[in-house]
């Protein structure tokens, strides 16, 4: 039975004599880099704070956006509250996740592994009733003799581990969101495209950790030209530590005799170079994910004004492309071909300016009958008011006359504007 506007199951006989050769694709997010020490995997990359912050910024921002199912009509569009997907948005796509959790998981999988996969669950009528997440590490992709794409999934029955049993899903039975693809079938993760950058950051971070784990960094040294035996050294250490260590002894005057000298030890140029490299690496990682530095805590050369602008840039140039991908994939997999219904994420909240600019734009929209009062109230999250859907008459144009006065040399000395 085919229900208009609902997703229906497309039946295909599965090949019994084996599928075509496995698609040759680069392993998403894995591989050794020229640095030699970093094995770039999603788990290792998330040890970098900037990678975790970038993935969290994008995935949590998209998960927080309102999502609506609309239906095209002759007058434009109306919200389709009867569509099954609308129920999943409101109550959750499965019994383990809310809609926000699902979107956040799907986006994180795509950003770290290049692909995010979810099984579409149908009811007896063929309508979608659920979306079950499938970790990409459990999936192998096959191209069938018919040209369709099949996904062989390792069946999991326990919270930890898998049974080893495999089941096959066809391309019409999954929602497959992917990053930019090299073959049109599988997405390729940004970790693999920028493996050298990720690897260099991992090596630098590991080097800094080993320096502090294995190195010794005293703040200063006592030096003597005379030979000091072990007893004298122990006594000197005890006296010095008792007199000058701890918060109670801070900034006390230091008096030395018998030829002792104190020399402060500062950060070496090599250590300073490591710190500079780590700072540069954070900017490189933010650039990979197209996240403005202030949004991931990189405040160098940042002010309140340009940070606010960076937020709008993030919405327009980082979130919007991903949202269009999400909407297109839902139209391909969850909605029936030719269905008048479609999914749309509302990004208006991220694109709002400061209150003064926002209300100025509303005033222009109201005067030119672009928006009604209730539409403005809806955007701001307020309830409608009676008569708020009526458009007012457009403002009448006012003609003005400009009168100029000249002096004896013909120069303009006064300009007066009057209504005609």
Descriptive overview:
The chain has helices at residues 42-45, 49-63, 84-91, 99-113, 190-193, 195-214, 230-244, 269-288, 304-333, 348-351, 355-367, 373-379; strands at residues 67-73, 76-79, 115-122, 128-134, 139-143, 149-154, 166-170, 174-178, 220-223, 261-264, 341-345, 400-406, 412-419. Among the domains are: 42-198 and 277-333, no CATH class; 355-419, no CATH class. Helices cover 37% and strands 18% of the residues. It is of the alpha+beta class. It has a three-stranded antiparallel β-sheet with strand order 2-1-11. A three-stranded antiparallel β-sheet has the order 4-3-8. Strands 5-6-7 form a three-stranded antiparallel β-sheet, with no helix packed on it. The protein is built from twelve helices and 13 strands. The radius of gyration is 32 Å and the shape is flat.
**Which class best fits the helix and strand makeup?**
alpha+beta
Strand order of the largest sheet: 2-1-11
Percentage of helical residues? 25-40%
Number-wise, the strands total: 13
* Average pLDDT over all residues: 78
Proportion of residues in extended strands: 15-25%
**Are there runs of 5+ residues with pLDDT below 50, and where?**
1-31
The shape is flat
Largest sheet: 3 strands, antiparallel
Q: What is the subunit organization of this protein?
A: single chain
Termini, distance in Å? 70 Å
Task: Please report the number of helical segments.
Answer: 12
Along the chain, the helix and strand elements come as HHEEHHEEEEEEHHEHEHHEHHHEE
Q: What's the alpha carbon Rg, rounded to whole Å?
A: 32 Å
């Amino acid at each position: 039975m085919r229900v208009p506007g609902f997703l229906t199951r497309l039946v295909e006989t599965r090949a019994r004599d084996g599928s075509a050769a496995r698609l040759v694709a680069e392993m998403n997010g894995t591989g050794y880099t020229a640095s030699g020490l970093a094995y770039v995997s999603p788990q290792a990359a998330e040890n970098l704070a900037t990678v975790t912050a970038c993935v969290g910024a994008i995935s949590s921002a998209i998960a927080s956006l309102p999502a609506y199912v609309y239906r095209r009509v002759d007058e434009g569009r109306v919200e389709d509250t009867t569509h099954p997907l609308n129920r999943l948005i409101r109550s959750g796509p499965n019994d383990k996740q809310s809609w926000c959790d699902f979107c956040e998981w799907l986006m994180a999988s795509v950003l770290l592994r290049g692909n995010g996969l979810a099984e579409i669950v149908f009811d007896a009528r063929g309508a979608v009733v659920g979306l079950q997440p499938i970790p990409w590490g459990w999936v192998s992709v096959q191209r069938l003799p018919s040209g369709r794409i099949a996904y062989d999934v390792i069946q999991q029955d326990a919270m930890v581990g898998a049974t080893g049993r495999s089941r096959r899903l066809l391309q019409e039975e999954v929602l497959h969101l992917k990053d930019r693809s090299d073959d049109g079938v599988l997405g390729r993760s940004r970790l693999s495209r920028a493996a050298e950058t990720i690897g260099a950051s991992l090596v630098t971070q590991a080097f800094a950790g080993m320096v502090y784990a294995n190195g010794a960094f005293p703040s200063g040294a006592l030096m003597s030209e005379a030979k000091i035996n072990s007893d004298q050294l122990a006594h000197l250490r005890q006296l010095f530590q008792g007199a000058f260590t701890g918060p109670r002894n801070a900034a006390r005057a230091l008096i030395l005799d018998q030829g002792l000298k104190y020399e402060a030890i500062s950060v070496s140029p090599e250590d300073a170079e490591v710190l500079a490299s780590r700072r540069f690496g954070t900017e490189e990682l933010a650039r990979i994910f197209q996240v403005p530095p202030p949004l991931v805590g990189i405040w160098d050369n940042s002010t309140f004004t340009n940070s606010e602008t960076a937020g709008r840039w993030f919405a327009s140039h980082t979130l919007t492309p991903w949202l269009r991908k999400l909407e297109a994939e839902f139209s391909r997999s969850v909605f029936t071909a030719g269905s008048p219904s479609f999914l749309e994420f509302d990004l208006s909240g991220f694109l709002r300016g400061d209150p003064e600019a926002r209300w100025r734009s509303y005033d222009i929209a109201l005067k030119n009958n672009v928006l009604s009062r209730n539409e403005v109230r809806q955007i701001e999250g307020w309830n409608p008011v009676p008569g708020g859907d009526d458009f007012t008459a457009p403002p009448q144009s006012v003609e003005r006359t400009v009168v100029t006065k000249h002096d004896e040399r013909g120069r303009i000395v006064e300009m007066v504007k009057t209504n005609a």
